[in-house]
Amino acid sequence: MSKIKIPFMGLKAKRICLENLDLKDKTFLLSYGYDINPLKQSIGRVGLLNPPVVRKKSDATHQIVCGFKRVLALKSLGVSSIICNVLPPKKNDEECLLLNLYDNVSHREFNPIEKSTAINKLKNYYTEEEIVRKFLPAIKLQPHITQLKVFKPLCKLEKGIQTAILEGRISEHTAIRLSQMDRASRRVLGKLFVILRLSVSKQIEVLEHVSEIAMRENLSVENVIGMQKISSVFKNKKLNQHQKGETVRKYLRELRYPQLTEKEKEFNHNIKKLKLSPGVSFKAPPFFEGDHYHISLCFKDMNGLKKSLQELESLLNDRPLINIIEG
Fold it and tell me: Residue 247 in contact with residue 255, Cβ under 8 Å?
């Protein structure tokens, strides 16, 4: 059996005053969106099981390498000094980052913002190809460059959007599209998605509609979202969240496809005039492009079929049907 060489950290235990731990230095911090209260309760009951790992800086302070949340929890509990494991000064930044990375992934899974933060900090020492091959599997991502491209921008988004990502209100795919927009556009769209709580596909649909309208009308995204019809939806207390989302989607679709919307309205108006029975449905060609219409009949016996066919025959000379087919 071949021997595995385990790196020697050279850690030395030392009691350090909390005021000498630099909480402003977040060089190696990967955690985001955390709650220290469970950790405070744990420390309060059984004490500190794993001391933070630190590295001495050029002055009297120490840089936190592992255990940032533990230090915050201890500070919140009113502790003035703690035992820390101190790394030798020769440990460079790359080694410290990897120490923190593997310390975290050994006992928990990163959230999307943390994965993004890890990718961006690893870029200081490794190529994208190396990150994909060596580190993406460790943070529970598929080793593909597309995964790196999707997650990389997330940690650079505004905090409100990052929080919405963690809460599931904004999807990762929507976030990558938002990251390509200017700050003002991200802000208003992010707020829109948080309020409406749309599904992933509907978020992308709304984003595309708004972008297209803004470009065509030479407006800002903020101006599109601020249109009176949209802003009035948010103020309407009679509509629930789902209804608000559907109303906004419908209005944006009408703005983006005015001619198509008008044809749909005319088609539906004529269908309503035909007063079709529940077993008969009429379908126009997709986007009203083409000349093939579809009729569907639903019946359970020969008598039902005869009635449906008779109904259709009786409509052949009706003006609404002629309007639909001949325009």
Answer: no
